[in-house]
Amino acid sequence: MDEGYAWRKYGEKSIQDRKNPRFYFRCAYRDELGCGARKQVDRMEDDPSLFHTTYFGEHTPACPRDAAVADLDRDGRRFVVQASIDSFRACLPAEGEEMPASMVEFTAGYCWPLKDQMANLVSSDVSFATPGELESLDAISMEELMDLLWP
DNA sequence: CACATTTGACCAAG
DNA sequence: CTTGGTCAAATGTG
């Protein structure tokens, strides 16, 4: 699953008692920005179509993200929402499923593996002073956001 | 050309 | 020694 960051693969190693090799990635901006973020990806034993990803370290705030940007006016305020577009797509409710009532529910309920990163993406936005302000987003504005991202 | 990925070498720890 | 993690030269991709 794409969490929106740019990674560079730097290794691949067979692991004892494991059928599949482990893949090693580091932030693509390690040299440029001194970012120390890394991750390891393993194919799962029981379901080879799934991968288990372990993260190490934090990204620099300056690390570019693969972001979608949406602008909308609501109650005279200007909202700017940034998110990894692939992450959002991957987390969209299935056909027939209900759209969550708020952005908080959306990120918490549907982006479980990415919950922290998604919450960070949204709450670090300049338009929202605190994460609590996200609670005020209702279902209608969520739909507006979706319309803007996928007209 | 400017990047990224592959892959065996290399290395530190146990 | 073995094991897991990283480096870097060769190779791939546009």
UniProtKB/TrEMBL annotation:
UniProt keyword rRNA-binding present: no
SUPFAM superfamilies: WRKY DNA-binding domain (SSF118290)
Database matches in PANTHER family: WRKY TRANSCRIPTION FACTOR 19-RELATED (PTHR32096:SF146), WRKY TRANSCRIPTION FACTOR 30-RELATED-RELATED (PTHR32096)
Highest classification ranks of the organism: Eukaryota, Viridiplantae, Streptophyta, Embryophyta, Tracheophyta
Domain of life per record: Eukaryota
Keywords carried by this UniProt record: DNA-binding, Nucleus, Transcription, Transcription regulation
Compartments, record wording: Nucleus
WRKY domain location: 1-64
GO CC entries: nucleus
Protein name per UniProt: WRKY transcription factor 70
GO molecular function annotation: DNA-binding transcription factor activity; transcription cis-regulatory region binding
Keyword DNA-binding belongs to the record: yes
The organism of origin for this protein: Panicum miliaceum (Proso millet)
